[in-house]
Amino acid sequence: MAKDRSDLDLDRELADLPPELRWREWMRRIEAVLFASASPVPREDLARVVGQGATVDLLVEDLAADLEGRAFEIAPVAGGWMFRTRAAYAPAIRAAADVGDQLLDLSEFDIAVLAAVAYHQPITRDGLKDIFGKEISRELIGRLHARGLIGTGPRSPRRGAPYTFVTTEQLLVAFGLDSLRDLPDREQLVDAGVVGEAPQVDFG
């Protein structure tokens, strides 16, 4: 109810402003929303702060151009947009600020398991064992789950109905991906030894 009320209080159309100033004000509103949000903001939410004649994608595009040369950028992540620091400034941030809690601190094998889940989901621990040729510990699965990178999927139709695992939106955010389609080509990962050449796993 409060949300509906705030919508009524917001002048989306800004009809009293000339077109150029109206467009810039819409850009600033989108900037403010993205700045205030810790997670990706979808198109439909951004559309709530601009006029009906405005195109969110074009506003975001213009705002991104406006930010050229700045230390941060607008990135398409998980079906929406969010602010992130440009990669070139990561060393400066690490040198000046305590960002230890924000680091994923994943081993190469952790990332390999994440990749296997991403390409074979939903998949069980037995399915992961088939891919890597060894047992995947509950501790590793728990670590990835605690970081919000994987979640619990549907139970497998196999005997005992074991749990399956799937990737989450947090994985997309952590790796700066708009969707799973942005993952590297699976053949490239096979060549790099990150994902095994296993046949499609039937729920593990």
Model description:
This protein has 204 residues and is mostly helical. The chain is 45% helix and 10% strand. The chain contains 10 helices and 5 strands, in the order ααβααββααααββαα. The chain has helices spanning 2-9, 19-36, 43-46, 56-66, 90-96, 108-120, 125-132, 138-146, 169-175, 186-192, and strands at 41-42, 72-77, 80-85, 150-152, 165-167. The strands form 2 sheets. It has a 3-stranded antiparallel β-sheet. Strands 4-5 form a two-stranded antiparallel sheet. β2 (72-77) and β3 form a beta hairpin. α2 packs across α4. The chain is elongated.
Topology record:
Blueprint: H1 2-9, H2 19-36, E1 41-42, H3 43-46, H4 56-66, E2 72-77, E3 80-85, H5 90-96, H6 108-120, H7 125-132, H8 138-146, E4 150-152, E5 165-167, H9 169-175, H10 186-192
Antiparallel strand pairs: 1-3, 2-3, 4-5
Helix pairs in contact: 2-4
Can you tell me the overall shape? elongated
List unreliable stretches of 5+ residues: 198-204
Gyration radius (Cα, Å) is 21 Å
Task: Tell me the β content.
Answer: 5-15%
What distance separates the N and C termini?
45 Å
- Beta strand count: 5
What composes the largest sheet?
3 strands, antiparallel
> How much helical structure, as a percent, in the residues?
40-55%
H-E string: HHEHHEEHHHHEEHH
Number of helices: 10
Strand order, sheet with most strands? 1-3-2
Report the average pLDDT across residues: 82
Class based on secondary structure composition and strand pairing: mainly alpha
